[in-house]
Model the fold of this input.
Amino acid sequence: MKIQVPKGTQDILPGEVEKWHYVEAMMRKVASQYGFQEIRTPLFEHTELFQRGIGMTTDVVEKEMYTFEDKGKRSLTLRPEGTAGAARAFIEHSYAARPQPTKFYYIGPIFRYERPQAGRYRQHHQFGVEVFGSPLPIADAEVIILALDLFSRLGLTELTVKLNNIGCPTCRQSYRQVLIDYLTPRADNLCADCRNRLTRNPLRVLDCKQDGCGAIVANAPSITDHLCQDCRDHFSRVLDYLRAAAVRYEVDPKIVRGLDYYTRTVFEIVYSGLGAQSTVCGGGRYDNLIETVGGPATPGVGFGMGIERLLLTLEKNGCYLPGERGPDLYIAAIGDAALEQAFAAMYGLRQAGVHVVTDLMGRSLKAQLKYADKIGARYVAVLGEAELAAGQVQLKQMQGGEDWVIAWSDLADWLTEKLGLEANKEEVR
RNA sequence: GUGGGUGUAGCUCAGCCGGUUAGAGCGCCAGGUUGUGGCCCUGGAGGUCGUGGGUUCAAGUCCCAUCACUCACCCCA
Done:
């Protein structure tokens, strides 16, 4: 049996990895402009962190975690989302004692044991942001706007923001009872899953896609009519901020996120062209999470964005994405003496910022040129006995076919000028 | 965990009602001038036909199982 990547994982190969660099660079840039700092937390944590943070009855904790015991008999789990680890770090390093709010962002792999399908992997990657310490609706609006700003800078504008208000533990509890009272007499017409949810997590019945359940849910009491005044005010202020920023949004009472820690605002940013998995970004407010996992009462709000799904969306929309980049220069050397000189010269050229390679395969001149063409080299320098004797080099521009003969000693200067190189110029595009 | 689809060369695929040495295009390597790429031509390397059983004189072709991939459900990014 050939060894392949484990189910639901994938290699990111040259040609593809440039796209990741590009979107990740944009994420870092935008997050930084919004005042977020990067945090890197372990890929695995104590299992208990996720059990307490995400909630024991959630699907993620019940059946999707990669949990294992290490040699010291500790139960550890590969992180199935990013917020819990960030919250743990916030507590562990006493960020509450620093000026608030605390604004973190992270980029990295997330693991969930699920059946893979289009846009879903067992190891996927998320860009996430968290604002700890602010209970105010402006913080909710800021993270949503950050996500939209990022999308728009990548060229995506046709995304839909859906949001909902799921209240605080207090008012959600009373709504929960109202919902149970409504659903129980109708339980016979619910699907098996929903009959189970009825006792364990009745809010989840609301976003069941089964026809029968949908019909019952359509007439169910709405959560919006049962929330406390504070929660309503909070949500309406969030919407005010979004309107002020000219954000188009849709309030969707059916959005109920799958993680228990959410309070008040929950939202998703969806793109319909992705197949069944249309959520590119999902998040919300979690005012009790920090306390639940053992920290000082601290509100928070954030989101996770799936990088694989983002890339799929960008591709479907024909947005700019970088591809493989060939070297600036390929040195085609003829004979050992020329190859030695070329080999020695490359060091200086690279110091000057030129991407340069030469023949590592012992090929003929013709084969070297073919190779230079295939890898997309912009210029080729031909160095043979004649050039060596004259202290010159023949330079050839591959795309136009133009060529020049210049002094070997001028090569670096000539190229840096021709390529418009400036030392260490790093731009996102 | 449940259901559907698909497994033939590195990639995309052909292979008719089972029939003898398993093919194409692209890609890869080499050559077609003595030191010049793209186009064209020639040659070459590369396949236990996913795996294991079964039916048959004969299986890439039919049957069963299994594994993998894929799409969808559940749920999520």
